[in-house]
Task: inverse folding
């Protein structure tokens, strides 16, 4: 029997907080936000306390100790260049794969670009490509002579690639890569999986992992999911509407209403409350505006005959009419 | 070397004896291990010390399982202990050199103080040395030197956000090493 342990995601977030609060310049609001996070789950607090324990250990050092640390690190980095094998063996002992996953998550907390909940933004890149970030997305952009790379940490993006045959355009997530020379496609990273949808031309997807499935080429309308090294085709979609969100519209085609509400809630700071079980069996079709989700929810209620009400705390609730 | 010679070992022997008979292991392979270590250290004294540490480690093993290849088992343990010993001696030497430069001489440092510092530094180095260089630099600037993010960013020639990312990476890395199991 083992006690519950902080998940890698909690550890990454605790590391983010420890870094955020590492200097005396952090505003009170950061301390408060960190405290709020710790209150959500005892494991959050445990992970952060462990980070703080390192601080305590480090604070026991004096100037002599610190200079010794520098000296030894210096010596070792010189010898390790000669003895690469030892360093490699140590890295294997520490579990390289897990460290790599950690580094992905940590990078995601300080991304180059991000959107807030409910925000959508289009970035024009220097090479003429355009990236549209959907709600609550985070990514890094890098460009070298050989490759253009977007590291997507979370959320959804629409990529319109400017053609450049010498520099493939790669979107990478911790689940794998999607590579194109010139095309339009959507990559979405959420809930431990990455979904790639092709709108135009062709995209090569390559899952990542210790024993990943082979790469595959996707054509317009193809959609596939990458997770834990596996590649799963998700059937065909209409390429014309696959990126409707980037135009500010959520399109539903005979979909369960709870699923549409979940999608709308991703854009809302205050989610609409609903009882998914009570709404099962109710389906909806239509286009709903993402720029004004109050209006979208209102439209959804009208077209389904559901009742929209405001609760004591001012939050919206949707449910069957009494 | 720290002074502890696994004093509690004797008490444990009876409990482990069912699966690993350390007494018999020592009788049959003790000399062989000591000479193996002498070959690797070129010092009879140290070899004897490290051989004793190795048998202590056998006694302290959390999940004693029957040992099929005693000599390969012992030499694997001894190799690890030897590496730890080399690392600690390296730290001790560096510490004495730095202390001498700071204090004029290192004569008034007690053996206990040196052992204590070596142990603390060994633990810290263990956490820091596998970090990528930039992450380590960022972390020591913020954590040890007490710089603010803007100052550290200037020093490292990267953005403030990047420094924060390095520092978070260092924390996550320390956590992973310290709480691996």
Result:
């Amino acid at each position: 029997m083992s006690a519950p342990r902080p998940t890698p995601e909690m550890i990454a977030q605790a590391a983010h907080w420890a870094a955020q609060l590492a200097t005396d310049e952090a505003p009170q609001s950061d301390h408060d936000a960190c405290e709020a996070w710790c209150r959500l789950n005892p494991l959050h607090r445990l992970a952060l306390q462990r980070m703080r324990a390192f601080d305590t250990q480090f604070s026991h050092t004096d100037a002599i100790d610190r200079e010794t640390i520098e000296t030894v690190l210096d010596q070792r980095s010189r010898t390790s260049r000669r003895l690469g094998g030892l360093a490699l063996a140590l890295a294997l002992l520490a579990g390289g794969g897990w460290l790599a996953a950690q580094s992905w998550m940590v990078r995601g907390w300080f991304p180059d670009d991000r959107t807030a909940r409910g925000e959508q933004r289009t970035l024009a890149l220097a090479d003429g490509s355009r990236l549209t970030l959907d709600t609550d997305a985070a990514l890094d952009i890098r460009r070298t002579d050989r490759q253009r790379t977007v590291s997507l940490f979370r959320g959804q993006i629409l990529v319109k690639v400017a053609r450049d045959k010498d520099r493939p355009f790669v979107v990478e997530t911790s689940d794998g890569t999607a590579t194109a020379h010139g095309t339009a496609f959507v990559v979405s990273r959420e809930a431990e999986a990455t979904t790639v949808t092709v709108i135009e031309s062709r995209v090569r997807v390559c899952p990542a992992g210790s024993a990943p499935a082979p790469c595959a080429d996707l054509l317009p309308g193809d959609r596939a999911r990458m997770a834990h090294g596996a590649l799963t085709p998700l059937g065909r979609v209409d390429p014309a509407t696959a990126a409707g969100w980037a135009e500010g519209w959520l399109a539903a085609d005979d979909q369960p209403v709870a699923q549409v509400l979940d999608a709308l809630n991703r854009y809302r700071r205050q989610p609409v409350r609903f009882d998914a079980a009570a709404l099962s069996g109710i389906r909806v079709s239509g286009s709903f505006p993402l720029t004004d989700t109050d209006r979208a929810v209102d439209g959804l209620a009208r077209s389904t005959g559901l009742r929209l009400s405001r609760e004591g705390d001012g939050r919206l609730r949707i449910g069957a009419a009494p | 070397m720290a002074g502890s010679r696994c004093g509690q070992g004797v008490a444990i022997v009876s409990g482990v004896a069912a699966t690993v008979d350390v007494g018999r292991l020592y009788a049959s392979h003790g000399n062989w291990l000591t000479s193996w270590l002498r070959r690797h250290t070129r010092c009879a004294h140290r070899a004897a010390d490290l051989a004793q540490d190795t048998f202590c480690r056998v006694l302290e093993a959390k999940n004693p399982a029957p040992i099929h290849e005693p000599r390969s088992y012992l030499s694997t343990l001894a190799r690890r202990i030897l590496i730890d010993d080399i690392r600690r001696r390296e730290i001790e030497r560096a510490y004495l050199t730095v202390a001498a430069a700071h204090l004029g001489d290192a004569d008034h440092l007690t053996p206990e103080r040196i052992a204590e510092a070596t142990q603390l530094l060994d633990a810290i180095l263990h956490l820091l040395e596998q970090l990528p260089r930039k992450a380590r630099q960022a972390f020591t600037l913020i954590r040890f030197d007490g710089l603010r993010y803007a100052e550290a960013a200037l020093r490292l020639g990267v953005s403030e956000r990047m420094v924060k990312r390095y520092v978070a990476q260092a924390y996550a890395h320390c956590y992973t090493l310290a709480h691996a199991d």
